[in-house]
Amino acid sequence: MRVFFALWPGPAIARRLHKEGERAHVTTGGRRMRRDTLHLTLAFIGDMPRERLDALLACADKVAFTPFALALDRIAAWRHNHIVWAGASVQPPELESLVSQLNAVLADAGFPVEPRKFSAHVTLLRNARGELPASEIAPPIEWPVHAFALIESDRAQDGAHYAVLKSWPAAGASGR
Ligand code: ATP
Ligand code: MG
């Protein structure tokens, strides 16, 4: 199975992100991510044997975090992989903590962890071409984060399909 941990936006946030993708698409072309697939990857595990799932769930059980707000306030393109993404110019400490805790428990359990510095982004377009000067999202998209999730990725011809396997609420949050 192919899995990763992510923040999954509610429909209102996803709608606004999708709209930003539409705007950028006019300039860059490329393939728009479907609205219901938009997410922010926290830790990518990749392909692993299904027998490892319990160990992976146990990792996430050890992570503690409090709810926080993530202000997605800019849109930009990466040339190297032709992605257009939405991101936050300020990465909240709670988000940094969530990612570093995940990486620590994953490494302890022998799962692969990303050596590169975490860069919070929501991919909006793939195979984007042409110039896209970084620009502001105004007003910023205020994303209230009160859970993180383990996602299974099923890559198909028409793009990946994702299923939420389990979600972990922040301390004091209802899990939604
Ligand atoms: P596809 O690979 O079919 O184009 P996808 O990239 O959305 O679709 P996955 O490759 O399963 O699907 O990736 C799931 C998520 O993890 C995506 O957000 C992707 O950007 C991210 N991801 C994929 N590979 C890595 C990696 N090596 N390091 C960090 N994040 C990754
Ligand atoms: Mg991929």
Name the helix and strand elements from N-terminus to C-terminus, one letter apiece.
EHEEHEEHEEEE
In which order are the strands of the major sheet placed? 2-6-5-4-7
Bound molecules: adenosine-5'-triphosphate, magnesium ion
How many strands, which pairing sense, and closed or not: the largest β-sheet? 5 strands, antiparallel
Strand residue percentage: 35-45%
Q: Give the number of DSSP strands.
A: 9
Question: What is the name of the CATH class?
Answer: Alpha Beta
Looking at the structure, the CATH topology is Cyclic Phosphodiesterase, Chain: A
- The DSSP helix count reads 3
Can I get a quick summary?
With 176 residues, this protein is α+β, with helices and mostly antiparallel strands. It contains 3 helices and 9 strands, in the order E-H-E-E-H-E-E-H-E-E-E-E. The model has no long low-confidence stretch (mean pLDDT 95).
Topology:
Layout: E1 2-7, H1 11-28, E2 31-32, E3 40-47, H2 53-61, E4 68-78, E5 83-87, H3 93-108, E6 121-126, E7 135-145, E8 147-156, E9 159-169
Bound molecules: adenosine-5'-triphosphate (ATP) and magnesium ion.
Adenosine-5'-triphosphate binds at residues 2, 4, 41, 44, 114, 123, 153, 155, 160.
